[in-house]
Specification:
Blueprint (H helix, E strand, L loop, with lengths): L3 H5 L1 E8 L5 H11 L22 H13 L2 E6 L2 E6 L8 H7 L5 E7 L6 H12 L4 E6 L8 H12 L2 E4 L1 E4 L7 E4 L4 E4 L11 E3 L6 H7 L1 H18 L4 H5 L3 E6 L8 H11 L21 E9 L8 E9 L2 E2 L4 E3 L4 E3 L5 E4 L2 E4 L2 E2 L4 E6 L8 E3 L16 E7 L5 H13 L4 E5 L5 E5 L3 H14 L3 E5 L4 E7 L2 H10 L4 E3 L5 E5 L2 H10 L3 E4 L8
Parallel strand pairs: 1-3, 1-4, 4-5, 5-11, 6-11
Antiparallel strand pairs: 2-3, 7-8, 8-9, 9-10, 12-13, 12-21, 13-20, 14-19, 15-16, 15-21, 17-18, 22-24, 22-25, 23-24, 23-27, 26-28, 26-29, 27-28
Helix pairs in contact: 7-8, 11-12
Bound molecules: guanosine-5',3'-tetraphosphate.
Length: about 525
Amino acid sequence: MKHTAEINRRKTFAIISHPDAGKTTLTEKLLLFGGAIQTAGAVKSNKIKKHATSDFMEIEKQRGISVATSVMTFEYQDSLINLLDTPGHKDFAEDTYRTLTAVDSVVLVIDSVNGVEEQTRRLMEVCRMRDTPVIVFVNKMDRDGKAPFDLLEEIENELHIQLHPMSWPINSGKDFKGVYNLFDKNLLLFSANTKANDDDVINIENLADSTLTDRVGEKDAAQLREDVELIDGVYGQLVVDDYLKGKTAPVFFGSAVNNFGVREMLDTFIRIAPSPQCRPTSEKEICPEEEKFSGFVFKIHANLDPRHRDRIAFLRVCSGRFERNKYYHHVRLDKDVRFSNPYSFLARQKDIIEEAYPGDVVGLFDTGNFKIGDTLTEGSTFYFTGIPSFSPELFKEVVNKDPMKTKQLEKGLLQLTDEGVAQLFTQHGGNRKIIGCVGDLQFEVIQYRLLQEYGASVQFNSLPFYKACWITAADPKKMEDFIRFKTANIVLDKDGFYVYLAQSEWFLNTEISNNPDIKFHFTSEIHKG
Ligand code: G4P
């Protein structure tokens, strides 16, 4: 049995944005449409309070809650939607990048006032690496934002993606009157704070129709006619295949907080977003329709109760059917494991599940068997590729303040870095431990958790490095020489692979040009593929 119907009705995606653009608000509206929550504010209250994001204690408190919102599953029309949450804080960007390996498409939220922002750029880079299909939602049209054509140009230029407007706004800010749906050829009139329903939709087959003028006035009607003519001339019809290949991104305009334009986007999403896709492995592409089960771990979350060190591993099902209590092969450890309490993430509660299909995310209780990127199969030995560790940008040496707790510290460091909060390196030819992170906040979290969960007290000393590069060479002799000459900059990652730590971009470029036989890689993926 190929479970085709189950596979086809699934859509697994993430909403990404620069903090404050409206990701949480949009998530909430989607859940309302899906009937997964009944009241506005249900997701919002789970959010790490923005103003407290520099306070890691607050993050600590929110950790358990964010497990519950990590994956939100809901049904809409005939589709089953798995919405994977991504942390908004930039210091947890790596977590977001990895979550993006587990989705089949994304919705990118852009604030119409601020346009493209720093996190938007970084997140889109990751999407482009994998050609992930993107739908853009330009939010906050009820505020005086940038002119829509300027905004489209900015997004196209900065994010290097072709856009395709699906709706078009009539003004913005206090003059915002609504959007014209270019695809369905109807007008959706804006009314603040109401749940947009079908009554607000006016069908206008022909824009020359006087209904348009009657509803929005002479001036705005003329502007819309002009804009739409231009758009039709420039963009033509949306080629869905270009969207699926990650080349073209359909764009919607709306206001999440007013629930305006959200349903239009969701309806299009249901129509065009990809169902679970094939994924690369060490042997061949594995497609969802394969008879046998396979999946990979893309996120590990420590459990809330510090007395029990069990964790939750998030497994994306890639092929076949996952069943409770069945033995599966843990490829890295070469052993068979089974799960008696796997759970699914229905937004209202955690439910023990009996089975799961490609596109689904299953929560597995783990006592330390899993690392990010681990593959489970029904006996095969391939592993999924494309789940990289990114190069950290901040480096600190771990100083043990309590020698009596050395063992606990080592265990803590290994387990916490398995969760992917940070990367652990060991000095070449020595025993110094170095932690690499993408954000400063993670050092605080690690220090706090080492003490709370492992009783180990540490201090961090900053190191003057700016980037870690995994190094390889075809000729072992050349590799040996490089390592010998650069000993002070060489460390080993957790899997024993050599990593060069560069002090600055200048040093890195110099080494790259002076050592043509050495290859410098910015993700650890090279060793897994
Ligand atoms: P994030 O998850 O991307 O960080 O953004 P979030 O949804 O929390 O939205 C950030 C702020 O923007 C919130 O205001 C939210 O209410 C507001 N917002 C979201 N969508 C719209 C929109 O369409 N129009 C306008 N004008 N504002 C919008 P806040 O004051 O920070 O929070 P709150 O006090 O309203 O909860």
